[in-house]
Design goal:
By secondary structure, the chain is α/β, with parallel strands linked by helices. It folds into two domains: 7-248, 3-Layer(aba) Sandwich (Peroxisomal Thiolase, Chain A, domain 1); 259-408, Thiolase/Chalcone synthase (Peroxisomal Thiolase, Chain A, domain 1), CATH 3.40.47. Helices cover 33% and strands 21% of the residues. It is built from 14 helices and 15 strands. It has helices spanning 22-31, 62-67, 70-86, 109-120, 133-137, 141-150, 165-178, 197-205, 243-248, 274-288, 306-320, 332-335, 342-350, 353-356, and strands at 7-15, 36-41, 45-50, 98-104, 156-160, 184-191, 231-232, 234-242, 255-264, 297-299, 327-329, 358-359, 383-384, 390-397, 401-408. The strands form three sheets. It has a ten-stranded mixed beta sheet with strand order 5-4-6-8-1-9-15-14-10-11, sandwiched between helices. The chain has a three-stranded mixed beta sheet with strand order 2-3-7.
Length: 412
């Protein structure tokens, strides 16, 4: 057992509302291209959503898609893409030494809503209920579907951490690798949230569901005219390894995971706490042995809800007010809130900054809410940073769960 092992990202697979590979996603972010569209959901009718369009049948058969879940299909697609990108000799990898750790906000609502809708057509006769319902709705489903698809016999966990879950998947992977419980981790986050009308209805009941005549302008973090969350689906999954193993096989290394932290507000079901968020960032930096002024880019969590944005800005001021170079941006403005996948996609959207030296913008920011003013907020146009060495990724969720992940440019 060694807690000093260096942990690196060696392969990336993703599907986002504006791209189905890291290259496509990054190009969309730099070009200001949104993936939010008009969408129709049961009982509510027209809403706005971030919708993915990937090839479900690239790694699954039609019967697998029918039997499984949308979250499972997203996870299977992204996991296979990550392994392919990693250059691993997959046929010869010891599958019992591979772990799958995927964050998710909620799971099972889609399938339950669908089954209730179907039996309503038959007088609520439960004989019509699908015998696939239980394996579809168990909490470990998305990670479990990956193991079934890829023949992985090591441990798998689907980590319920609300909207902090994408980071949590990577944190679990790093911990398991350092404990030498596994030799390879397939980690990240996934979301099928747009396929449950309940999440739209709940946000609407809270007055927190975004609307706009132009879908691409609906998600407006920090903007005075913001009016709520755009729900999105997606997935971001990576192969994560100990540096010694990655170097031994000559792997391409995208980044090194150098710091992370999770904590709880213990305050409210939905209202965040800036003090706890600031503590989480500071703890992650302490573990990474970094000062705030050594962070080049902060990927903000901001969801375009009034209180959520204000609290995070307050936390960011507490931590980075004396860091004049630290750029702060937001990825949700392009794709909406991908829930369990948000942290993973937002991390991966910023990761190419190590190569291109750019901080992508926060778009749709036309009238800054003065309560959200930050000195280094990247507004509407990408910013040339020169050299980028460290990126801090914020992800916060309901019931006061906070997660922070820090990655660094890899140097041997």
């Amino acid at each position: 057992m060694s807690f000093s092992d260096r942990i690196v990202i060696t392969g990336i697979g993703l599907t986002a509302p504006n791209g189905n590979s890291l290259a496509e996603f990054r190009q969309s972010l730099l070009e200001g291209r949104s993936g939010v569209v008009d969408y129709e959901t049961r009982y509510m009718g027209p809403v706005l959503a971030g919708v993915c369009s990937f090839d479900e049948l690239r790694y699954q058969k039609k019967k697998d898609v029918r039997r499984g879940t949308r979250a499972g299909s997203i996870a299977v697609y992204c996991a296979n893409e990550a392994v392919k990108d990693s250059g691993l000799d997959w046929p010869n990898v010891a599958r019992d030494r591979v772990g799958v750790y995927l964050g998710i906000t909620e799971h099972g609502n889609v399938e339950t809503e669908n089954e209730i809708f179907e039996i309503s057509k038959f007088g609520y006769d439960t004989k019509v209920w699908s015998h696939h319902h239980n394996p579809r709705t168990v909490a470990n489903n998305p990670a479990g579907e990956v193991t079934l698809n890829m023949g992985i016999t090591g441990p798998h966990l689907t980590i319920g951490a609300a909207c902090a879950a994408g980071n949590a998947g990577f944190i679990q992977a790093a911990q398991m690798l350092r404990l030498h419980e596994v030799d390879l981790a397939i980690a990240g986050g996934v979301s099928e949230s747009i396929h449950t009308f309940g999440i739209f209805a709940s946000f609407a009941a809270q007055g927190a569901l975004a609307s706009h005549k132009d879908p691409t302008k609906a998600c407006r973090p920090f903007d005075k005219a913001r009016n709520g969350i755009v729900v999105a689906e997606g997935g971001g999954i990576c192969t994560v390894e100990r540096l010694t193993d990655a170097k031994a096989r000559g792997a391409k290394i995208y980044a090194e995971i150098i710091g992370y932290a999770m904590n709880s507000d213990a305050r409210d079901f939905v209202l965040p706490d800036a003090n706890r968020q600031a503590e989480c960032m500071r703890l992650a930096m302490k573990r990474a042995e970094l000062r705030p002024d050594q962070i080049d880019i902060v990927s903000s969590h901001a969801t375009a809800t009034e209180q959520g944005d204000i609290e995070e800005v307050s936390a960011l001021r507490k931590v980075f007010e004396q860091s004049p170079r630290t750029a702060i941006n937001n990825t949700k403005s392009f794709i909406g809130h991908a829930m369990g996948a948000a942290g993973a996609l937002e991390l991966l959207g910023n990761l190419p900054s190590f190569d291109d030296g750019m901080a992508h913008a926060t778009i749709n920011l036309d009238m800054l809410d003065e309560r959200c003013a930050l000195p280094n907020l990247v507004v509407n146009q990408p910013r040339e940073m020169g050299r980028v060495d460290c990126i801090l990724n914020n992800s916060f969720g309901m019931l006061g769960i906070n997660s922070v992940l820090i990655i660094r440019r890899f140097e041997s």
